[in-house]
Amino acid sequence: MTIWVLIKSLIIGGLVGFGIGAGAARMYHIPKTQGMGAFRTLGELNACQGDPASHFSFGLGVFFNAWANAVAGGALTGDVGHRIIPNWAAAILLLKGKDPETTLHNPRKMAITGSIVGAFVVAFLNVTAASIPKSLQDVANEVLIPAADWFLNPVMPAIFLLAAIDGGRRTGIYGTLFGGLAHLVMGNAVPGIVLGILIGKGVDDTGWSKMSKIIFTAVVLLFILSGFFRGFDIEMIESLNMTVPNWLIGIHEIFGYEVK
Amino acid sequence: MENQINNEKLLKNDFWYADWSFPILTALLASGIFSGTHMYYVHGTGVFNEISILAMLKVGMEGGGYGAAAAFGASFLFARILEGSLVGILDVGGSMMTGIGIGVPALILATGFTLPLTSFPVALITGALLGLLIGFIIVTVRKFTVGQGGSTYGADILMGAGNQSGRFFGPLIIISACAASIPVGIGSILGALIFYAMDKPIIGGAILGAMFLGFFFPIA
Q1: Domain that holds residue B172
Q2: For the CA atoms of chain A, what is the radius of gyration?
Q3: B176–A20: do the CB atoms touch at under 8 Å?
Q4: What is the ipTM of this complex?
Q5: Structural domain includes residue B88
């Protein structure tokens, strides 16, 4: 049983690490190359400024929390893919060569190193049933979870919105509009601000071209759909002290959303 | 940025930078993430997501209906594919971990078809095919946007904002450590000071310092 967990984890970790590593390095070459990862991963990788010790300790800092989550819930949290694998792969590469441009920014090196790091990390997390020292687990939880929560909300929404406002009149308008709506509907403004910047800049650069219109329609559709599936329409009607019409409740029931 | 210009010639043909190779990378990643959900389904550990989101899939596995997990995961996947192709960074958390890892398995399980999640090889193949599809869609959308329009759709602004917000994380960790307990706070301050004095980013020192003192003075 355990041997199967080990073998599968090595394969899965290798695959995931390969994609994450290559994707992270490719993020440094946008917009010419399509990257894969997250803006916050890019920000955090940059925060460590190419210093192997910082990359390693940043990964280590979230590792114990990830371990606790794996032991407690069988979940390899977002930290594994967003932080541990890219930062540790970067740390290993930077030990050999000091220049981030030939190491961290190189998709081939990051993919191979990420694959090895991923295999080990995933295998380790999945196989170990042994718990980490409780005091370290507590410190990691007490320190990193609030910091990460603040980071995701409100630090990132605020900074992204400021960037949208500074980016020009249109990005400011659409960033504020969709960012605010996203925070209402999805609980975090960042996706909305990102889409707002995208529309604003797209219109700035190419005018109301066919593509701009398609994007705008898709974004509006996205808001309507995610609002509907999260029951935002119901909540809004209720919070305005109005009665929810029965036909609306009926439509929601078709899609399995229970209206209280 | 200079690096980008230097590499410009390479980008089109080099596997590691080209658009045509992107679906291969997404296929490998999706294969691993989908199989991670197989691991959870069979062995009870290994899904790539937060416990809170995993809880939605667990509700379904225990007979409570897959609707929530499927709707949540699928809408995330849609948004991230659109966003990813336009801004140049495919968000792995939303598209892969939540979309492929939670949403799609929920959709498949909701139909009563369990083979992709009970068999490891089938899981690997299912994930790879899904990833290939996602990568293909993104590269196709890209052709009609970034490749043609002459607009980067604000990718530079987003990069700047990403870098700016990353800088906040170090200070936030010190503040959080000081709110956790006195020894942990002191450890984090000292660690950050040492790293700052050594001209290193304070983030590493703040975490290591907090954990070091936290080991000797556990948080009550």
Answers
A1: 160-216
A2: 22
A3: no
A4: 0.74
A5: yes
